[in-house]
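Session log. Operator J.P. requested a structure for one protein chain; no other inputs attached. Running the standard single-chain path with C-alpha cell output.
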Amino acid sequence: MDPQTYVVTGASKGLGRALALALAGHGYPVLALARPSTELDEIGGLLSSVAPGSRSIECDLSNPTSIANAASLISQQTTFLAGLVHNAGAIAPVKPLDKVDASDWAHSIQVNLVGVQDLTQRIYPLLGGEHQSRITVISSGASLRPIGSWSAYCVSKAGLDMWSRCVAEEGRESNISSVSVAPGIVDTGMQTEIRSTPAEDFPSLQSFIDLHANGDLARSEDVAAQLMPLVTTHSMEQSGQRFDVREL
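Structure written below.
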C-alpha cells in the first residue's frame, strides 16, 4: 500500500499551512496545494524535509486548467490518498449583495465550492477501497448564519457543508468518509483582509477589528492541533457530520 498521503488545499499560509505541517509531523506525506507563491515553494521544501514524499503543487481553484494539472500531478505521486483537507477559500467579495459585481460573486462560488467538487472528482479514483479515505472540509460559522456583505461566502460555505454530506452519502459503500468542521475565528490572512474592508461595504467591520485588538483570534497552530484527531481518525459512523472546533 502507498504511504498514508494527505492532500491539503490552501496550504501555503494560515490554517492550511499549520495543518500540512501537523500532518507531516505525524509522519504523513503531504501534497500541499495553493496558488503559485514563494510561500508555497517554501512549505513544499519544509514538508519534504519532515515527511519524505511530501511536495508542493500549484493549484488555483478558480482555474479549471490549474485544477486539472494539479490532479494529474497528484495521480502521478500516489495511487491512494488517506485524506483530503479542503481548506482553501476566499472571503471576497465583501460587499452588499445589491452592489457586488456578478463576476466577483461567481468567482467566490468557483473557489469555495465548484473548485472543490472539480478537484475531488478528478482524484476520486485515489480514494477509498480497502482502506478508508477521510475528507475534511473547513467550514465556517457563516455557513449557518447570514452575515451582511458576505453573501457569496455564506452561500458557498453552506453549500460546502451539504457537499460534504453528499460525499458521505455516496462514499459510504466505497470506504470514503467526509466531515465538515468550523475552525472558529483564526488569526489568518483572511482576517486581515476582512479588517481592510471599507466600512461602507461591511456593517460589522468594527466587531472584527475589536476581535483582533482584544486578542480573541486563535492561532493557526493551536487550531490545527485540535483538528488533527478529526482529520486523521474520524470514523465512518461520524461521516456526514458537521463539527465545531470549540466542541472537540
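Operator note: The longest helix spans residues 102-123.
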